[in-house]
């Protein structure tokens, strides 16, 4: 579905929502490398207040590993789907770990040798997935894509997922929509209105799931087309929206 000329902002956050948040490009501005991102002042406090306001029904849904998410948002350890759902931490803190195939380690070594020829290119090992980044050197896009295409037939039950300045090899049947659907089947998310906020092509799977369940999909940025019916301009606008959520005491999440 194509976006109309303008999309309305999302409604104010309600206490009957199950709120799912992408990270890079949504909560955080992009950086040239995954380790270069900066967490805005006040964001961790806002997320902590929202988690309490939603009775725990707040989760991060990201391509990053859970350990990276915990480092970024310390001391919070939120329910989360990392690696597009390959890693999942439930509300009770139980973690479902990924199991990487041996061939992925071989591909990792080959990709690193290739990336060394293009300063600024990056190979990111995510255990069961491998992300090839060229945001820091656009000239690396074609050779990295060709390497991923050549490796795919040898990685059974894997597929390619394109993103903004990156292509990722990851198992079939694992995307952000699957992760959100799984979390919606368990407490404290079950029975609530699902809301997902994201910016990238990889977030469209999540948008589809929440729309099918009568929820709300919120696009960050102006990428087109999208299934989302609401829009926020950038991560700064996302933070303002989250911070404006009322708390049980009637104050905003930053009060």
TrEMBL record:
Q: Which cofactor does it need?
A: Mg(2+)
Functional note: Removes the phosphate from trehalose 6-phosphate to produce free trehalose.
Report whether Hydrolase shows up as a keyword of the record. Answer: yes
Q: Which pathway or pathways does this protein act in? A: Glycan biosynthesis; trehalose biosynthesis
Its top-level enzyme class, in one word, is hydrolase
Q: Its Gene Ontology molecular function terms?
A: magnesium ion binding; trehalose-phosphatase activity
Q: Which residues cross the membrane?
A: none
| Classification via InterPro entries | HAD-like_sf, HAD-SF_hydro_IIB, HAD_sf, OTSB-like, Trehalose_PPase
Q: Which Pfam families match?
A: Trehalose_PPase
Asked whether the keyword Metal-binding is assigned, the reply is yes
Reaction equation(s) it catalyzes:
alpha,alpha-trehalose 6-phosphate + H2O = alpha,alpha-trehalose + phosphate
What EC identifiers does the entry list? 3.1.3.12
Can you say what this protein is called?
Trehalose 6-phosphate phosphatase
Alphabetized UniProt keyword annotations: Hydrolase, Magnesium, Metal-binding
Tell me which Gene Ontology terms the entry assigns under biological process. Answer: trehalose biosynthetic process
State the organism named in the record: Lysobacter arseniciresistens ZS79
Q: Which family does it belong to?
A: Belongs to the trehalose phosphatase family.
